[in-house]
Write a structure and sequence with these properties.
The chain has 2 helices and 4 strands; from the N terminus they run E-H-E-E-H-E. Strand 2 and strand 3 form a beta hairpin. It starts with a strand and ends with a strand. The protein is an alpha+beta fold. 16% of the residues are buried. The chain has helices at 15-19, 43-52, and strands at 2-5, 24-26, 32-34, 58-61.
Length: 62
């Protein structure tokens, strides 16, 4: 599984951080960081994170 977040679209709503904190996080300046290739064991959480993004900035491949 590979994740891409379009940082030109992301508005830092943080829904992905709540849905999959193992994969998504904010730094001290509210800039999103994420694991681009998380374990497949986290697929359900990553899928929920992508679905919860209000601006649909998260894409999952593989």
């Amino acid at each position: 599984m590979r994740i891409t977040v379009d940082m030109n679209v992301c508005e830092s709503h943080g829904q992905c951080v709540f849905a999959a904190p193992e994969v998504f996080s904010f730094d001290d300046e509210d800039y999103l960081h994420y694991d681009a290739e998380p374990s497949d064991e986290l697929r359900d959480k990553v899928t929920a994170a992508a679905a919860s993004c209000p601006v649909r900035a998260i894409t999952i491949a593989g």
